[in-house]
């Protein structure tokens, strides 16, 4: 079955303007013009973000939807895939954002729009803890692209978290996956879009 609905989830401080999100939007339009594409700006509250995603995908066919998530978006994508059974592509996914983002309480700017700020609150850390998805129930439904050169997240931890899934381990690269274009063909195939 082909993917008819695709969700893209950006990372912390990122947005739908990210290079990866824009690249995916273009590829979906080129390869599968009838595919429903949604890449929302996620609110800073994890609880609100998940409510937005569940509401926005409530009518999507579970067997024909998929999600791509980068960094914190990969953490969200894992939760969503665990609860819907959909395919998921994870790009350097955050494994324990409650631990990692506890150091980032306060005001932040958006990467793609520095004039836009948001406040990451203490209670958001607890909201992240609630979203820990547990062991993968269907690891074959996940493709994780992990960079050993990730300067933000530990690739060993990511690799362990997604054991049993389809894993593409990159020798170099970086957290942003600056070489993302090199992996899009494999992503499209996995998502049944190519």
The first-to-last residue Cα distance is 12 Å
Tally of individual helices: 7
- What do we call the CATH homologous superfamily? Alpha/Beta hydrolase fold, catalytic domain
Largest beta-sheet details: 6 strands, parallel
Mean pLDDT over all positions: 93
Question: What is the compact description of this entry?
Answer:
With 194 residues, the protein is an alpha/beta fold.
Structural key phrases:
single chain; two-stranded antiparallel ribbon; 194 residues; alpha/beta; 6-stranded parallel sheet; globular; Rossmann fold; 7 helices
Can you put this structure into words, describing what you see?
- There is one protein chain.
- The protein has a 6-stranded parallel β-sheet with strand order 2-1-3-4-7-8, sandwiched between helices. Strands 5-6 form a two-stranded antiparallel sheet.
- The model has no long low-confidence stretch (mean pLDDT 93).
- The longest helix is centred in the first third of the chain and has 13 residues, at 19-31.
- It is of the alpha/beta class.
- 34% of the residues lie in helices and 20% in strands.
Topology of this structure?
Blueprint: E1 5-9, H1 19-31, E2 36-38, H2 46-56, E3 65-70, H3 72-84, E4 87-91, H4 97-101, E5 106-109, E6 117-120, H5 122-130, E7 142-147, H6 155-161, E8 166-170, H7 184-190
């Amino acid at each position: 079955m082909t993917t008819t609905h695709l969700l893209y989830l950006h990372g912390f401080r990122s947005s739908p303007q990210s290079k990866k999100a824009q690249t995916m939007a273009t590829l979906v339009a080129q390869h599968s013009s009838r595919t429903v594409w949604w890449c929302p700006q996620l609110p800073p509250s994890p609880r609100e973000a998940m409510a937005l995603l569940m509401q926005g995908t409530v009518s999507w066919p579970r067997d024909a939807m998929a999600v791509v998530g980068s960094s914190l978006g990969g953490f969200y994508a894992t939760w969503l895939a665990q609860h819907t059974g959909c395919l998921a592509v994870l790009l350097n996914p955050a494994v324990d954002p409650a631990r990692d983002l506890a150091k980032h309480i306060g005001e932040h700017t958006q990467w793609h729009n520095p004039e836009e700020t948001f406040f990451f609150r203490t209670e958001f850390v607890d909201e992240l803890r609630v979203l820990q998805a547990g062991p993968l129930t269907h690891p074959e439904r996940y493709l994780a692209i992990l960079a050993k050169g990730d300067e933000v997240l530990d690739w060993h931890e990511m690799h362990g978290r997604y054991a049993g899934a389809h894993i593409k381990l990159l020798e170099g690269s970086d957290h942003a996956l600056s070489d993302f274009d090199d992996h899009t063909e494999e992503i499209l195939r996995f998502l049944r879009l190519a």
